[in-house]
Design brief:
Length: about 290
């Protein structure tokens, strides 16, 4: 992948978009093969990646060429933010370690966030977690998907619920924010599975939570099943990012999404009083 040129960002007036983060893509594919994940249809199970040196070169170029990009306020003051947009940035932890070390060696002052698996975060060493923090890791997206073991198995997610809780605890201790990503509405997902997801999200207690209705995307394992059983009600892809329910299900999933958010956020949490946290999250999510 190092042979690919960097994106032609000079063609886009990034500053005018008020963007808060540079997106940097460092790898393609993911070997885990979760049945709902678009990676299998888009990039495949074979993981290909760029070298740490090549990634650092792109980050340096970004900072040099876009001095006026909006900066994000964080524990180390204002810095540009880099979002490593890979579906799974941490397939090789050695490579992430190399990237973090190079960020520090080269004196690059950024904050970064990325998508990661909970088992990775639960099992990496304390030193590597410290390295994340020191190199500017501010936030991670963690795919949890469900609080029901049955549904996790259907998704071939291959994570343990204890690892979800352990990863959350470790990130909290290091002061790294994280978003818990959940999916609602697999074929045989019952009322009690959905309730298990809400309860588990509360137990995990991410800084931000995302509840999305399942969308069987072409190329995924579950898509084949949904097509075979005629369970997709809408093939207009413009509706696939709208939060609309586009699958047949005995539950009203749009109502469940609302219920999940209300039950998650309308509970007392001392973190809600931390204005610094809201300020930082506003910058990441706006
Ligand atoms: S959901 Fe994450 S771990 Fe699973 S296949 Fe997709 S990128 Fe890989």
């Amino acid at each position: 992948m190092d042979k690919l040129p960097f994106p032609a960002r000079h063609l886009v007036p990034l500053e005018k978009y008020g963007t808060h983060a540079f997106t940097v893509s460092t790898s393609r594919g993911c070997p885990f093969g979760c049945t709902f994940c678009q990676v299998s249809g888009k990039d495949g199970l074979k993981w290909r990646h760029r070298s740490a040196a090549n990634i650092i070169e792109e980050i340096k170029e970004l900072i040099k060429n876009h001095p006026n990009i909006k900066k994000v306020s964080g524990p180390e003051g204002k810095r540009p933010m880099v979002f490593f947009v890979d579906d799974n940035f941490m397939v090789s932890i050695e490579r992430v370690e190399e990237i973090c070390n190079k960020i520090m060696e080269e004196g690059i002052k950024i904050y970064w966030d990325a998508n990661a698996r909970v088992d990775t975060i639960a099992n990496i060493s304390e030193d590597i977690l410290d390295l994340f923090k020191k190199s500017g890791c501010m936030h991670l997206f963690l795919g949890v998907e469900s609080g029901s073991e049955k549904i996790l198995k259907s998704y071939n997610k291959r994570i343990k619920k204890k690892d979800v809780l352990k990863s959350a605890e470790r990130l909290k201790k290091k002061g790294i924010f994280f978003t818990g990503l959940f999916i609602l509405g697999y074929i045989d997902e019952t009322n009690s599975d959905l309730n298990a997801t809400i309860q588990f999200a509360k137990k995990m207690d991410p800084t931000i939570v995302s509840f999305r209705i399942l969308i069987p995307l072409p190329g995924t394992k579950i898509y084949e099943k949904y097509i075979k059983d005629d369970l997709i009600t809408d093939f207009n892809y413009f509706n696939y990012t709208s939060g609309k329910q586009i699958i047949k299900h005995k539950e009203n999933l749009e109502r469940w999404v609302l219920k999940c958010y209300m039950m998650y956020y309308l509970r007392p949490r001392k973190e809600y009083l931390d204005l610094g946290m809201w300020k930082m999250l506003f910058q990441i999510y706006r």
